[in-house]
Fold this sequence. Notes:
Elements (H helix, E strand, L loop, with lengths): L8 E5 L4 H11 L3 E6 L24 H7 L3 E4 L5 H11 L4 E4 L3 H6 L4 H7 L4 E6 L14 H7 L3 H4 L14 H24 L3 E6 H8 L1 H10 L16 E5 L5 E5 L3 H12 L13 H6 L1 H13 L3 H8 L6 E3 L3 H4 L3 H5 L5 E4 L3 E4 L25 H7 L4 H11 L1
Helix pairs in contact: 1-8, 6-9, 8-9, 17-18
Amino acid sequence: xxxxxxxxxxxxxxxxxxxxxxxxxxxxxxxxxxxxxxxxxxxxxxxxxxxxxxxxxxxxxxxxxxxxxxxxxxxxxxxxxxxxxxxxxxxxxxxxxxxxxxxxxxxxxxxxxxxxxxxxxxxxxxxxxxxxxxxxxxxxxxxxxxxxxxxxxxxxxxxxxxxxxxxxxxxxxxxxxxxxxxxxxxxxxxxxxxxxxxxxxxxxxxxxxxxxxxxxxxxxxxxxxxxxxxxxxxxxxxxxxxxxxxxxxxxxxxxxxxxxxxxxxxxxxxxxxxxxxxxxxxxxxxxxxxxxxxxxxxxxxxxxxxxxxxxxxxxxxxxxxxxxxxxxxxxxxxxxxxxxxxxxxxxxxxxxxxxxxxxxxxxxxxxxxxxxxxxxxxxxxxxxxxxxxxxxxxxxxxxxx
Length: 401
């Protein structure tokens, strides 16, 4: 069967994570995604694990490879007027312009959506920004650390009561934004198929933060209050809490409907008389006596290592998980068997595992095992496809070498 987006051309004028990872998803779906990059390569391309503090000699940026697989690459120095004109001609061949360039820079290069859609009403322009395309912060630079994490309350909310605000790991907001941006693009393509016109799709990292934390955000809107911070020493529901085991590892109980699981976990814990203790008879009593029950559970879990609790819980219908290190988590057999970590055979870096798109299609296998392109590897062919003459192509190639 043809891929869902076969025949769709996407020009990706973007760097770092959010918009490029959306481009990778579109490539997985069969689109021809052309990545426009500076001749020296964006910083993200060159960020090897050792530069990020890992003790590894892997010679490439694994996140760059993940977020740029399956694309073609053209290198353009947009300081040159000829490169700007070439880019406009290349965009003229596209179904979708995918970008995280700020409005002022798009205007500078003659790529503002108003003029593009006036010339080609069928074009879809998909924009990623920190704070939206209008208003006083439309041209403010942002990463997900600032717009998604700090500005939306997530940073201040996601830490224990006795800990400072948490430091976000790379790409959390960006990859969430990529899914939203991809959904908007697919919907716009569907509308274009039925109605013939393109449109502008906007995703702001700040909006993604509000949406990802939507349970808390919606409650804050009606209460004008921030959520109470979780105190694991006296939670409202001791069966929805994390506990440290005797070997320093952690276990997370997630029995939100605690009455359904009380007798089962009491049996698994092996504490005599716990199931019949009237202080803990139901969810309300456990909440009233959370200090006593939480102290008991803290002491119990601390008395044995994590492996003991794995064995104790095995065979019991309980909702829980060990808090794995990431190095452990990527060895999960079920995830591997589901194809979450496909093997890439890269012509320069050899074989390595990466992260697949977070969905599967029964009739259309996705292409998450494709390598990312070498810098500028397709400059000539993309320029030829856009109708540039030999002299212009030679100039662009010389400027990008």
